[in-house]
Amino acid sequence: MRQPTALSSDVLLAGLRAAGEETRLRILALLSEGELSVSDLTDILGQSQPRISRHLKLLAEAGLVRRSREGAWAFFRLDETGPGGAFAASLAAWLDLNDPVLAADRERLAAVRANRAEAAQSYFASVARDWDRLRSLQVPDHVVEAAVEGAVGEGTPGAMLDLGTGTGRMLERIAPKFGRAVGVDANHAMLAVARANLEQAGLSRVELRQGDIYALPFARGSFDLVIIHQVLHFLDDPGRAVREAAAMLAPGGRLIVVDFAPHEMEFLRTEHAHRRLGFSRQQIAGWFAEAGLACDLSQEVTLADGGSGQLPVMLWRGRDRRVQADPPARKINLEVA
Question: Which of 29, 50, 153, 323 has its CA 20 to 30 A from that of 136?
């Protein structure tokens, strides 16, 4: 088992004081399974919201957990960015999974996740007709996803960021290649769907955040890979979003953009809130250059027979021009089956 490293006596004592209470220890055990809201913890632990909030406040002050806001909701997870989170994970790992109290907590956690999955299915049932109509106009999703995986390659122990994560599908495919994976979306309902999907896929530790694509809540240079999948056509200022995404890249990092090629389907503006009817190769490459990226891949995603549907899908990849500290990545195969 991996042990926390370089803990000062102050950090260790604060962590022990915060964790040394039954409810707070149960909370740490639950958060070791993935991110949860205050409402989730209230349902699972059978305690009042103010009491749960007080416990979480103490855990956060000790550096064991961290909070993120999503509209009126607050979500908590172990603070993996600092030594306190590693210490909390170790404490959770030492607990006996057969303890009756902890076992009952996990059963209620499973019920909470089942309710999320049911809510996600209900949401998609309400939009299925329009969703299927749009998907029928382009190459199948699995072909696009395979193209993205090819452009990513083998991944790294570093971090990836998925902007406009939607249902979390890109995270499902790409997150296992990276040590840390984060998804951002402006829509709370879509994040709820993504949480349910990622939990069903066994990826409950992927981070999801509600945020503004023009003002991302992360330090510059924090990610080795950023993906913007089918998002730019909804934006008033897609070039600005590309620049903000590029600012998130570490030296040598990569930005992958997937979106439509130019088209004339005006109904997408009026019925589906598309602001742009696709982008040319030169347009995206120009935005990459303005953001300090070298465009090393620009390709149309097609079927094996060359077909692309009525809405051609393009994939661009830009690399940060700064020199990487690590050796260059291996050559990757970009062919799409």
Answer: 153
